[in-house]
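Q: What would this chain look like folded?
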Amino acid sequence: MSDPFLGESDIGRVADAREIAAITRLEETFNANRSRVFFSRQLEVWHENELFHWITNRGLRDLVARGTLISEVRALKTGGSVTLMWHRSYRYPRRDAARVVALVEEYADPNIGAAIGLQGEYLVLEGFARHRFLLAGREAREYHGVLRTPG
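A: My prediction, written as structure tokens:
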């Protein structure tokens, strides 16, 4: 059975220097955490200060293709899916995988997203107030008497 995490475009493609660095960094991460299950976006965010997300993702796909990592796609109750992965030496990943999926589902809940959005709006408005920014208008096309034309 083919792994849905592997893309058709990855077959036969040669990795560049950045991808090789990503693969090395990801191997270090998984070797240091052989008894943990991760999800792909988590790893992308973990390494975003040093690697672009798509490069991290390509590195993960390469490690899955090589057999260094095991990858599994799980359906979420919200209708989406999450790609889990773990080091091939992890003998009993099922319980850890179930915990990761439960955590992703908890934060994927629309109520959580709405609460985070409201908190973000509050923080922005508070920042504006502290710096005495004033909302002068909505859907404005003019600034200091200069009319902005659309397009």
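The helical segments are 17-32, 40-46, 53-66, 94-108, 110-130.
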